[in-house]
Amino acid sequence: MREILVLTFLAIGTFFLLLGSWGLIRLPDVLCRMHATTKSTTFGACGLLLALALDAGWSEAGFKSLLAVVFLLLTAPVGAHMIARAAYRGRVPLADQTTIDELKPVYETLGFWTEDKRGPGEVIYRSEDLQ
After folding, report:
1. Total-model pTM
2. CA dihedral in degrees (121, 82, 24, 53; nearest 10)?
3. Gap between the Cα atoms of 116 and 34, Å rounded
4. Where do the H-state alpha helices sit in the chain?
5. pLDDT number for residue 124
6. Domain boundaries, the chain
């Protein structure tokens, strides 16, 4: 019975990892790619780590894999948020299919983009370049 559960978690993990890879290749812009790869690869890695935990039992390897699952579930959303925020603030162009940009009025109201005369995709490396 345990072998069936291990194989099930391996299959689920592999499926989600392949789905994340497909999303990375297929989706149109950075924000969509980041969303697809973060969610699906997190689930995929958790599936593989849970399969390891089930196979190893209550040994040191099983405990470490459970700790890795917790660490992954806590850090992956934060990393994805920071990547998305950096991409948006860096004015990485959105896909042509993007019809609503709810964050643009907020950034304009706060003054992030009023004095900034650079175009989409131009990167600022120093704070002195903002003036």
Report:
1. 0.76
2. 170
3. 26
4. 2-26, 30-56, 60-89, 104-110
5. 52
6. 2-130
